[in-house]
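Intended use. Records like the one below are meant for learning the mapping from a protein sequence to its folded structure. Do not use them to infer anything beyond what is encoded.
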Amino acid sequence: MARLAVFILLCFCAMFAAAAFGVLHNQISFTIGASYFYDVKFAQFDIDPVLQNRIGAGVVGAMASWWMGLLMGLPAFALGLFTQAGRRRYFHAGLNAIWVATSITGIGAFVGLSFGYIADINTLVGYLPMIDAFSDPIGFVRAAIMHEASYFGGIIGALAALYVMWRERPKQGNDNATTK
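Structure written out for the chain above:
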C-alpha cells in the first residue's frame, strides 16, 4: 500500500515538474517569438485578453505540459513499483528519474532554440501555410521549433527516466537493499 502511495506521489511530482518546466520554457519562447502566443496559443488555450502577456504564456506552459510529466513518468514509475527494494529507495529513484527527464527535455529545448537561430530561418518561414497570418513569422518559427524540440527531448527524457529507474534497482546479492 505504501508503494502505491509513492507511485501516486511521484506522478504528482512529475506533473508539477512538467508544469513548472512549461512555465519557464514559455517565458523564454515568449521572449523569442511572442507571435507564437498571440497568433495561436492564446486562442488555442482560451486565455483571457487581460492575461495575454507573460502571465498568459506561463499559464499556457503549465496547461500544455503538466500531462507530459505524467506521460513521461508513468512507465518509469511503474517499472520502479516492481524493481525498487523499498519505498524510500523507490521515491529517491523516482525523483532522480524526474530530474533526468526534465534536464534532457531542457536540453532538447535548447537544441531547438539554437537551431532556430543558426538555420536559414527565411527558408523555414517560407513553409508556413499562411505567412501573412503571423505578426512575426521569424519569431513564430523560432518559438515553434523550440517547442517541437522540447517534445522530442521529452521522448528521449522518458526513455532516460526508464533507464534511471532500472539502474537504481538493487543488485542481486546486495546487502544494502531494504524492503522498507
